Fold these 2 entries.
Entry 1:
Amino acid sequence: MRKILAALLAAAACGCGSRPAPPLPEVIAFPRAALPDGPKDPAWTPVPAHVASLLLQDLVEPRQLTATTAALAVQAVHDGSRLALRLSWADPTVDDLPGASRFVDACAVQFPTVVTPDLPAPQMGEAGRPVTITAWRASWQASVDGRPDDITALYPRAHPDHYPFAAPSLPAGSAAQQAMERRYAPARALGNVMEGPRMSAVEDLVADGPGTLRTAPQQFSRGEGRRTADGWAVQLVRPLPDGVGPGRRGAVAFAVWEGSHQEAGARKMRTGWIPLAIREGP
Amino acid sequence: MALVRNWQLGRDMSYWYPEARPTRQFAAVFDINKCIACQTCTLACKTTWTSGRGQEYMLWNNVESKPYGFYPLAWDVRLLDMLGAQRWEGSRYAGRTLFEAAPAGERVLGWRPDDLDYAHPNVGEDDCFGRIDRGAALSLPHAAWFFYLARICNHCTYPACLASCPRGSIYKRPEDGIVLVDQGRCRGYRECVKACPYKKVFFNPSTGTSEKCIACYPKIEQGEQPQCFVNCIGKIRLAGFVSVPEKARPDNPIDYLVHVRKVALPLFPQFGLEPNVYYIPPVHVPLPYLEQLFGPAVKGAVETYRRAPEDADLAGLLALFGSSQQVMPRWKRLGDTVLGLSEDGRELVRVPLREPVYVRAALDSVRGVVRTNVP
């Protein structure tokens, strides 16, 4: 555990050579005039981290019964209206390409929709007591960074004979061609963009219990993930949670998926609720 | 877990959800003895449904050679090995189903194929069991054997894919029992890919969701048989609707073959899913192998099928296979004619019990030439 902590603190320090601050007992968002520009922005270096031990998701089926990612370092700053979180964790394998048996690295942050002393269940909330979630996936990041939606990403020497929507009779990029291509991707045609071309590496979601996760009506988060020397660092930016302005306290929970361990959905490492303090300041 | 009735096992069993049978259940009978593995069904499905990006390796319909053909690789033997030896007591299954054998933290005993397991759909093609020594081909019955197994989704009464999905993204249509993945709801966790013992749910890496055979439901809704049925040149397939044994109707062609004559059997009934594609087993394959695939009733099914030439009703119904694009929920035989009927008794198709045979003289005396069998 000591080794993991040292590695996480080193990761949290961006590898910039500064001595990391001692870990925090809770997640504290420090005030800043401007939010960092990404997970590798040196502005994160002096921000103290909370190191959250990750638990098995063994509350609901399918359960995760083998521990993988041990801990997660969380740094947080805010500008009075927006909250920026930097999550970093050790992960020696880069898993950013989905395939039949290939799963992708991912992380998520969860907030109760309404902050009350009696918080909803930390595993995706509960009926009538929803939670809001911001999720990042390594595959979405790869798409945003320019990886094409093409079978050759998975199998470089693959050579499909023909796609009907790529017929010469349809001018490439025309409205008719694009409409036909959408028809051959049923999930995308329904607006369910789980993979493929994406404009954002993150998604805002809501849930009110296990199995109820759904895309939020409004997408307001931004995010970016980058490789560190020994894992991932992900910056997520979203509005401060409702009712948790400067000087207030709330709660937050985290989850990490290790692609090389075929983790997805409920198979994940997670935290319970962790106190979140939004510090006041200039 | 709920206790549900699985008539294929002759007992109740545990399932994730309570028993909720559809108004009518889509079903099919495949006559293995007639399949020549031309893969026309595979191509009919492929060109209709899975020619998009991310579907390159996907075959909702495939035909594999048994015993050494698999798609994906080792789909059946791997699970049989995981489940371990089980036993039947007569027609009652005394072993554990995949739901009853689920390990801690799981809803179903299953495994997820590797990417490369999908890479060789023709592995084992035409490989036979047994040695072909000198002269073996001249002896009958042949010492070596293989057969072609055409496979689609079984649209099971108790689907493992549906039970395993933690999001409830898979549903069974109450009107016809067709099992579908909601493409608007699936988030690509692939629990269904792991749980389906027949490996008939596939992950699409381009959309990030899982996809599967939809039994061509837009055609079923129009009263037509699916693409892989109507394009089958061997006429091995018949689509329809199956009843539970207590409500079986002899004038329902699927019921007649499954319940009345018991000549068509489910594939791996011991898994406990109550699959709804029924197979007329190959008559030339050793019983122990067939019993593993089709259960203890297979001996009787083979014997019944062998007697079909003297059995006007059975032979007549088999003549209806591939005779019409339309689903024939009812049928009847009138002497040497067999009728495929609609639900309300309207005639859809009429076929002779036996196709007439015409023999032409080898010599065309008018033109003074010898006829040859060329188009």
Entry 2:
Amino acid sequence: MNAILTSKWTKAVVFALCLVPLGLLIWRAIQGDLTANPINFIEHRTGDWTLRFLVITLAVSPLRKILRLPQLIRFRRMLGLYAFFYGCLHFSSWFGLDLFFDLHDIGKEIAKRPFITVGFAAFVLMIPLAFTSTAASIRRLGGKRWAMLHRLIYVSAIGGVIHYYWLVKSDKHKPLEYGFLVVLLLAWRIGSWLIHRSRPAPAAATPPRRTTPESV
Amino acid sequence: MLVQKKPDLTYADVTPKALYMGRRNFLLGLLATTAVVAGWKKLPRMFAGPAKGSVPVPLTGLVSSKYTTTGEKVTPENDVTTYNNYYEFGTDKGDPSQNAKNFVTSPWTVSVEGECAKPRKYSMDEIMHLAPLEERIYRHRCVEAWSIVVPWIGYSLSTIINLAQPTSKAKYVAFESYYDPRQMPLGSQAGIQLPYVEGLRLDEAMNPLTLLCVGMYGETLPNQDGAPVRMVIPWKYGFKSIKSIVKIRFVKGEPPTTWNLYAPNEYGFYSNVNPHVDHPRWSQAKERRLGEFFRRDTLMFNGYGDYVASMYAGMDLRKNY
């Protein structure tokens, strides 16, 4: 398992797999199979995949502990960047296709419609994370501050779920499914933080704890 | 590679194995359950046999109508039959065309009842022959800000109202859809209360544009579009045009309507198409006509003001949305 996870080929395979949803969307577009309302379909699909990649990214840390596969960390940055990538596609399909770059409408919609306000905020909060995703940024900011900053992904994920929940008309099943997963993954973090806190090592003997991005 | 060894911890700090395994199993169990639930929903479709439901048949002897809308390009039939809101058959636009395949709409009766001199039950065959079937092209504007142009088939609802002879007590007409959880298992997940109910003021119901609809595109209605008989009220948002009607009832007071029951601040009783009154969550100023790239401006009363505006004279349409 370790050999597979640490192989450079695995990373390439995961990278390619993450492009499959976009590939399928393009394939359906070529086939003229984007439903009677293609713009809406593209918006919904890219939105779905943004949420899915946010959930997958948030699942990395719990899974590496639960499955005792610390090597999974190798994929977290890429998965997070894919969440941002699909978020960009989602935003630009709304702004470029749906509103056709109508700057007047976009301001009005973001200000006036709570589901768009919260979705837009969730997207904007991902931008600094994407820009500070490099190893150089971790060094520059310091592990602790970098980790603090990157907790913004929790806000983005919650915001994304609320955005979806407020959008649907009456069938809340899908947004609640995403909400359940996000809450579960965040609860795991709170739980492991509480367990950590409730077992303090003897104060005098505690060496300064090394904070690394991996420990988040 | 991160060094995991932490010499400052003693054996006493180790989480008890049962607790650790418990949490681990719990989480894995939850993940597995989620996966199973997600997959389970797709199963029925994968193992569905050939459809056993009713299918459209061609209609002949159609007459033209002075109420038909001219100058509009009719939406391709395939779009109108694959992009539907019919929550009894699922809430995704593509669901009804898949899930209504086994819907059996024969035999069918419509009960006309309530405050009227001649209540009675009509068989579908009777309904097909109460008046000459007219083809009427109407714009159809969904509350979700998309629109279509459809060549509906039917006749004015006033035909059947006149036969029933409503009494002076009748001020409103209430409609009810068919609902059978066995034929419509997804209805319980729709989030809205079923059976679907709708209503009109009696003068709205008597307006000649108000169509009792039995077909479209030269055939009887496909299941997903509301077979065998539905309403089409072209100046109101699409959800007012109730599908698969089993009951038409004359009543004294404003009847409850499904979407208004679900969210009274979002869907009013009148729900006239109005570009100046937004839905609380989205704008109604523009719409996307299926098949077009650019959004177009939404018209007051969906462009049917000449026929219907007088019914709302003096009413505050911002309040009576």
